[in-house]
């Protein structure tokens, strides 16, 4: 009996259950010959031999994701040799990949591979031939893999540069650039500005994540910004090392006018760089500012005044107060969602007032909840909310007594927190920017 209609299959084995073995996997490959997607999780009894036989029988496989399995380089090389249509490969915590393991090359899938994701691998360097040899790679994600990755990124950058030179010499049309690398995600890696400078040779990049890479600094980000002018999404988790700040972000503002999404975690940005981004990146729609001690009322007021296209705003663990909320009440005309978490200076009353001022605005905040310390990362679910719907939070602003008017709430708010006087503060702040930033942005 064959199951020709089965094209996607997920096999997940818990630690307490008996794992799928080689015989079962081979039987699946024989009976499901139209299988195009396979996900393996915790399949401890599948060996290199079983996976190799599966690969021989699964010529139509396009996507393979394996995690916490025990097979190794032999199995992966077999998949890459026999599955010539493979487009996506995701490998996570593969126990069979260890020091001294044979290198993993692209094999017959060198031209078809579009996405490679490597996560939590002890010997990730064994994947170097695969990453460099995938000719048409569009997305590369390397997360928490041991080894020095500067060399790999240099090889990718040189290959990309040589490819562009060959296209120019052969007088190819513009369609020849369709296979350029467009997305790179680097997280918790041993990578430095050398690697970022190599990435800058991949000029078609639109999506870049630099997450918890303490050896990366403004120098590397400036190099990327100057050459990758098509950048649309930038996520930076500075891990509070204070090595990426205004200098790098000003370069992004100057050279990347197509920026649509910006996430800054643990980055000490000020109104100088945020103002430049708000002024020059007119397409910015999603912004997240998290865990920064330098992002306060002045910076939020700047964003409110200049980010005309901003639709989603997330602020976590920043020293803002009700003054910033009042600025948002009349700024960012396109704003549809705002999330405030662990901003201790923001009161419940300010959130209620903001909701009455902008009735269509979705507001999520936890101002009324006593919470612990702040921890944010672009890798966990918290920051990715910038691009998707915000999940439910502990406390959400709700309607109170309908008889209470907007004006009375505003009066109460100002009398309690001194927001009336803050109007002069905000106005003075804008005048100060107009004097300081006119000369500052004149260089952009």
TrEMBL record:
InterPro entries: FBXL15_LRR, Leu-rich_rpt, Leu-rich_rpt_Cys-con_subtyp, LRR_dom_sf. GO terms for biological process: SCF-dependent proteasomal ubiquitin-dependent protein catabolic process. It holds the Pfam family LRR_6. Residues 190-386 form the F-box/LRR-repeat protein 15-like leucin rich repeat domain. Transmembrane segments: none annotated. Gene3D superfamilies: Ribonuclease Inhibitor. One of its GO terms (cellular component) is SCF ubiquitin ligase complex. This is F-box/LRR-repeat protein 15-like leucin rich repeat domain-containing protein. It comes from Gossypium lobatum. The lineage of its organism: Eukaryota, Viridiplantae, Streptophyta, Embryophyta, Tracheophyta.
